[in-house]
Amino acid sequence: MPDQPTENIREVLIEDDMKEAYLRYAMSVIISRALPDIRDGLKPSQRRILYAMHELNLGPTAKHRKCGKIVGDTIGNYHPHGDQAVYPTLVRMGQDFSMRYPLIDGQGNFGSIDADPPAAMRYTEARLSAFGAEMLEDIERETVPFVPNYDETRTEPVVLPGRFPNLICNGSSGIAVGMATSIPPHNLGEVVDALLTLADNPAVTVDGLLEHIRGPDFPTGGYICGRAAIREGYRTGKATITVRGKAEIEEGRSGKMQIVISEIPYQVTRLAIKEAIVAAVEAGRIEGIADVRDETDRTGQRLVVEVKRGADEQVVLNQLYKHTPLQTGFSIILLALVNNTPQTLNLKELLRSYLDYRVEIVKKRTTYLLNQARARAEILEGLKKALAHIDEVIAVIKASANPEVAAGRLIELFQLTENQAQAILQMRLQRLTNLEQEKLNQEYEELLRRIAEYIEILSSYEKTLAVVKAELVEMKQKHADPRRTEILDEVEELTTEDLIPDEPMVVTLTHTAYVKRTPVATYRVQQRGGRGVSGGATREEDFMEYLFTASTHDYLLLFTDRGKCYQLKVYQLPLLPRSSRGRAIVNLIRLQQDERINALLSVREFDERFLFMATSKGIVKKTPLAEFAHARSTGLIAQNLDEGDRVVGVSLTDGSREVILATDDGIAIRFPETQVRAMGRSTRGVTGIRLREGSRVVGMIVPESDSFVLSVSENGFAKRTALDSYRLQRRGGKGIINFRCTEKTGKIVGIMPVRPGDEIMVITNRGMLVRTKTDQVRACGRATSGVRLIRMEDQDKVASVARIAREESQ
Questions:
Q1: CB 556 within 8 A of CB 599
Q2: Which element (helix H / strand E) includes 699?
Q3: Distance between CA 461 and CA 458 in Å, rounded?
Q4: Cα distance between residue 373 and residue 359, in whole Å
Q5: Which pLDDT belongs to residue 82?
Q6: How many helices and strands in the chain, by DSSP H and E?
Q7: Active-site residue set
Q8: For strand 223-225 and strand 486-488, is the pairing parallel, antiparallel, or unpaired?
Q9: What angle do CA 536, 541, 544 make, to 5 degrees?
């Protein structure tokens, strides 16, 4: 085999060759495909489509032409990448939901906001819109450079004159190699005002420009949540803003509340929102939705989310924001090609680049018009000379053998230029009339005026800039429209609490620390003496120890027998049916070994009130509520306890109330709260009542002036006693008789303040529960045993009693 020639073989490292090839590819993508030019805000494919339409004379007043013709001319003349690359680009420039100011006026099916595809290009037609025509204005006046097309059969513009500020008004998006751009659309009127401000005051800051450009203005409307991210994006060129659809809550025909979505976030479809809602409902992330239907018609978008009866529609709306594309993030990346180099700019730099480019275009246009005017003035000057010496001119022409000789003799005799001589030779005889001579003089005077105007414009940057400003004002007057996207004040990120209805719950805790919450409506009101319903399935060794009502958004303060306080939100408790036992509290808080909950309290906020505490040994203390605001997972010290003592009651007070302590052997004491000074959390407290041998405190209340004291015994007896029956004593006394305890009644298990219309819940060790009105419990004196409240089964005892809070007090 003969030796191969080696003069054209070059050794290279494959790593270097791949690196060089990839860099060439990357730069090609960056410059020729993915990123817009800062001057006209267009990518090459968009620019070539618009120019092809310009060559077809498809202006705003022209007849629409088939998109197939436009695509064919674009592919054949300028962009040989196939119709699948060109037609979608053409379609997008004609979609009013994709572009804030469409550059193409389409006719036919151009797709929909719901991601429906456009019709084939043989069915659709298009022409330039008013904004597209503005982009090409003055392109024939040597304002932009032209280069040969791909096969060098014709030329194409490198950039369009861009009288319309396309990049900032319509925005752009694209993914290149290692970088991306995401410029949001803006309102034309606001952009023009900002450009005028920048032109008048080059030292204006980004914050100064923000007084005019409030933020992005998406074609689909909606809301932008917060201004901080907008400012960051305009100052640095990068940020992420939160965009929400427009949703309103209204009452439907059936009386059910419904959420009506009339505007959706930019680049999100109704179908995507609807599918996300269905998926979230099926997965249990959103509750309270009965139906979702699309009622969109020609009058506008309307996606209706029907809310179930009893559900909180605002919470459902928050859940939609949290779990569906009804709220989404939009990235601001102000990246564009500046002198064929990708650069990230801030808002001022973006606007300054456009102003500088338009000044350059106006200069080139004015120079072109000046040259044209001077050339025409030269011709008119020659014609005027000819008319002034018309007889001699005619004689010269008649005596000449041919036009070349005639032109030479005219130049010699009348000091004319070549162009002037040719114009005289081509002059029609009608120019000899007086009317035509007058028109010629008027045209010449107008040209002199225009030449002086052009020279004036070119004489300084300020004069050229004034023309740019005038054109911007004219554009605003012709095309500006109101904002579509509303900008809201700072909106905090949705928390778990925002997604949960604020509704009353029955909170229960068993003796062995199983906790749950159940809606209050689960329990029906019963008559006094009824058998009750089961409040929770418990084991034989377990029983319901605590029961009270609280809102789902309340804080739950859990006080333990060791004088510690833990904190939860009520909605953090497991939502379980009435018959359920609950779940172990150790799954929610970090209790120490052998530590158990001995008191619970719900609060809405940590204000200037106090927590008044009592222990089984009669010790009381008062601590500011604010000291419990910042609970730790390991709990806070609420009270230092003596050995063998435990917390039996905690109440909220304003610092000037009265306190009643009751013992299990039927003794009670009433004293002013002011006799107990405020103390810190890590203190013991002072004596509240001196106990008899073997007795203990079973309850503490802070009564209202119009309330009764309700006492309940372990064998199901109860009575109401007027508050006035308990005389005021000094703290630390032995107390007075509260309930006559007998073998039939058993010892006292709890006391509470009640008022007319109140309801109470009584629960037994075996989990039986009765809900009844306190008005059905007879009012008795202190030294009585009361009436039967609940019929007890053998060996069963009352474990706990709680008052259902009034609705207005929730």
A1: no
A2: strand 697-701
A3: 7
A4: 21
A5: 84
A6: 17, 41
A7: 123
A8: parallel
A9: 35
Residues for the chain: how many in total?
810
State the burial class of residue 264 (Cβ atoms within 10 Å of its Cβ: 0-12, 13-18, 19+): buried
Q: Which residues contact 431 (CB under 8 A, 6 or more apart)?
A: 383, 387, 437, 440
pLDDT value of residue 6: 61
Count Cα neighbours of 498 within 13 Å in the Cβ-side half-sphere. 12
The values of phi and psi at residue 758, to 5°, are -70, 155
Structure token digits, residue 735? 């107390």
Contact 774, 758 (CB under 8 A): yes
At 229, list the tokens.
Answer: 């991210």
Residue type, 441: N
Among 129, 44, 110, CA closest to 78: 44
Q: Where are the beta strands (DSSP E) in 73-231?
A: 104-107, 125-128, 146-148, 155-157, 172-175, 180-183, 223-225
Which residues is 305 bridged to in the sheet? 259, 292
Q: What is the β-pairing status of strands 658-663 and 647-653?
A: unpaired
768: exposed, middle or buried (Cβ count in 10 Å: 0-12, 13-18, 19+): buried
What is the SS3 assignment for 470-502? HHHHHHHHHHCCCCCCEEECCCCCCCCHHHCCC
Cα-Cα end-to-end distance for the chain:
100
Assess contact for 79 and 86: CB atoms under 8 A.
yes
Give the tokens for residue 271.
């179908």
Q: Which of 378, 373, 390, 368 is nearest to 423 (CA)?
A: 378
Name the residue among 499, 498, 662, 517 with its Cα closest to residue 582.
517
User: Do the Cβ atoms of 802 and 548 come closer than 8 Å?
Assistant: yes
Output the pLDDT for position 530.
Answer: 47
Residues 6+ apart with CB under 8 A from 708: 720, 721, 722, 723, 753, 754, 755, 774, 779
C-alpha 733 chain-centroid distance: 62
Alpha helices (H) in 238-302, listed in sequence order: 270-283
Strands of 277-407, DSSP E? 289-294, 303-307, 327-333, 335-338, 341-344
Beta strands in 355-423 (DSSP E): none
Residues contacting 450, CB < 8 A, separation 6+: 369, 373
Determine contact, residues 389/189, Cβ cutoff 8 Å: no
- Helix (H) / strand (E) element for 406: namely helix 403-414
- Strand arrangement, sheet containing 65-66: 65-66, 125-128, 104-107
Degrees (nearest 5) of the Cα angle 495, 501, 506? Answer: 120
Look up the pTM and report it: 0.70
CB atoms under 10 Å from CB of 98, counted, come to 20
pLDDT beneath 70: ranges in the chain: 1-7, 22, 25-30, 32, 429-435, 490-499, 511, 523-546, 633, 803-810
What token pair was written down for 383?
């014609």
Domains plus CATH for the chain?
19-188 (3.90.199.10), 246-325 (3.30.1360.40), 357-486 (1.10.268.10), 502-809 (2.120.10.90)
pLDDT of 540 reads: 46
* C-beta separation of 769 from 533 below 8 A: yes
- Lookup: tokens for 633: 């997972």
Give 397's Cβ-side CA count (13 Å radius).
Answer: 15
Contacts of 23 (CB under 8 A, 6+ apart): none
What is the Cα–Cα distance from 693 to 681, expressed in whole angstroms?
Answer: 29
Q: Phi and psi of 697, rounded to 5°?
A: -80, 130
pLDDT in tens, 366-381: 999 999 999 888 888 8
CB within 8 Å of 56: residues ≥ 6 apart = 65, 69, 70, 73
Query: From start to end of 561-657, where are the E strands?
Result: 564-569, 583-584, 597-603, 610-615, 619-624, 636-637, 647-653
In the block, residue with structure tokens 């009965």: 290
- What integer pLDDT is reported at residue 20 of this predicted model? 75
